[in-house]
Design a protein that fits this description.
about 190 residues; mainly alpha; 2 domains; two-stranded antiparallel sheet; 6 helices; 5 strands; about 45% helix; elongated
């Protein structure tokens, strides 16, 4: 029994150190060396303060800011510890009620806007943390933000265009706008 138990314990201890300690340290060190921003959580700094992450949506509800995609996390929106969708199907009455309430809120915030509401402004993403909206969703909000901030809509349209991220290599993914980056840039528009 001793001849079997001792090698098993030695292999267990060696693999524990190798895979539980050395490997994570090497991978983390390499990530910090090659991708320092990403390894640190893609944190966004403004005036020396961390204002969020470019990977997690923020709860903007002020009409003078662009609004992101609704969050399905609880007990508060964009709660990274509770990531997950609502798992409500298209026939679920609760989903239909939530969508109607979101459309009503968008219409109340901008009664003059009669355009069709982009779907990403009224439905949550699979994670409930999506930091991006479509360029159409950003453009939908330009008139409201311009009115509240007393700015020319053309300036905001150009700002949205400037902050639109294009598909990788022109074909992988969709065009998107990071709401946090757009709202931070909005603070500098006069």
């Amino acid at each position: 029994m001793k001849d079997i138990l001792r090698p098993a314990i030695v292999v267990f201890a060696a693999l524990s150190v190798l895979t539980g300690l050395l490997y994570p340290l090497v991978v983390t060190g390499a990530a910090k060396a090659v991708f320092p921003n990403e390894a640190a959580g893609s944190l966004v700094q403004r005036n020396g303060q961390t204002v969020g992450s470019s990977l997690i949506g923020q709860n903007f509800s002020d009409p003078g800011h662009f609004w992101g995609r609704p969050s399905a996390t609880a007990p508060m929106p964009y709660n990274a510890t509770a990531s997950g969708g609502s798992n409500q199907g298209p026939l679920n009455p609760a989903l239909n009620e939530a969508i109607k309430a979101r459309v009503d809120a968008l219409r109340a915030a901008d009664p003059g806007n009669t355009a069709m509401v982009p779907v990403d402004l009224i439905t949550t993403s699979a994670s409930g943390l999506d930091p991006h909206i479509s360029p159409a969703a950003a453009q939908y909000q330009v008139a409201r933000v311009a009115l509240v901030r007393n700015l020319q809509a053309e300036k905001l349209t150009a700002l949205v265009e400037k902050h639109t991220e294009r598909p990788l290599l022109g074909l992988l993914g969709e065009a998107r706008v990071n709401v946090l980056a757009l709202n931070l840039a909005l603070e500098d528009v006069r």
